[in-house]
Inverse folding.
């Protein structure tokens, strides 16, 4: 069997490799430009929807009291509330797309980051989400040091810990455990486990997709971009993120991170 490129000179192979790399770069740039345009261009009509909805609500509020209390006006106000809620959700989806673009294209500034310190910072950031709740934290003292961009790593941890806090909300005694995990040579790993509501493992394949949700919006907030962002950040570093769970039995997220040399090569 004749192998493609077998008759090419080294110069031709290098030129072909350069063309392939340029094609990949062009596709990535086109995707980034598309997402940026979508995120930017959708803002204006979205602002109109929310602004004019407010104006309509004010007009209805100026009606005589006996009219404003009528069934038709109250029904219209209900429609406006649904429209406003949907518009705000769409705004959050656009925010999620923009965060994905930034995470995928931002320059990586790799440096040693002690995971314990990064975890403490993420917990401090999420303190308002924990307010009024007695959450038990079990964090290993011997967490590894990661070779990572500290800003992107912080985004990843805030998303993962934020999910753990969110999905343990219905639990009487919420507990979140972070510990180092065994990993093959050339990498380190850690797991983040909660005792929250979990999810159907049959749907785990969609978990890290954009706008994918495993729970109803009425149960838990969010638009389904957080874990997609985590995956994008991990991939930038040559790392992987996986999750296992069962309904009512919590969720365990495992992050495997390459050591310094491999992380720098992936970047």
């Amino acid at each position: 069997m004749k192998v493609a490129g077998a008759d090419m000179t080294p110069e031709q192979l290098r030129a072909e490799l350069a063309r392939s790399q340029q094609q990949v770069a062009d596709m990535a740039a086109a995707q980034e430009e598309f997402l940026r345009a979508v995120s930017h261009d959708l803002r204006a009509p979205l602002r109109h929807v929310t602004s004019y909805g407010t104006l309509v609500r004010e007009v209805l509020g100026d009606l005589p009291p006996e009219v404003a209390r009528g069934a038709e006006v109250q029904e219209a106000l209900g429609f406006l509330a649904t429209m406003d809620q949907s518009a705000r959700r769409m705004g959050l989806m656009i925010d999620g797309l923009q965060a994905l673009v930034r995470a995928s294209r931002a320059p990586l500034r790799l440096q040693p980051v002690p995971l314990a310190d990064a975890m403490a910072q993420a917990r401090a950031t999420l303190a308002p989400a924990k307010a009024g709740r007695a959450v038990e934290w079990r964090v290993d003292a011997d967490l590894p040091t990661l070779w990572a961009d500290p800003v992107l790593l912080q985004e990843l941890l805030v998303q993962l810990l934020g999910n753990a806090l969110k999905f343990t909300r219905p639990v009487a005694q919420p507990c979140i455990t972070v510990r180092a995990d065994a990993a093959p040579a050339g990498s380190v790993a850690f797991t983040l486990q909660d005792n929250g509501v979990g999810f159907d493992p049959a749907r785990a394949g969609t978990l890290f997709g954009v706008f994918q949700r495993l729970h109803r919006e009425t149960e838990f907030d969010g638009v389904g971009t957080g874990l997609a962002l985590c995956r994008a950040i991990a991939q930038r570093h040559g790392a992987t993120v996986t999750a296992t769970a069962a309904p009512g039995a919590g969720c365990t997220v495992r992050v495997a991170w390459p050591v310094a040399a491999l992380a720098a090569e992936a970047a």
Remarks:
- The domain at 111-266 is CATH 3.30.565.10 (Heat Shock Protein 90).
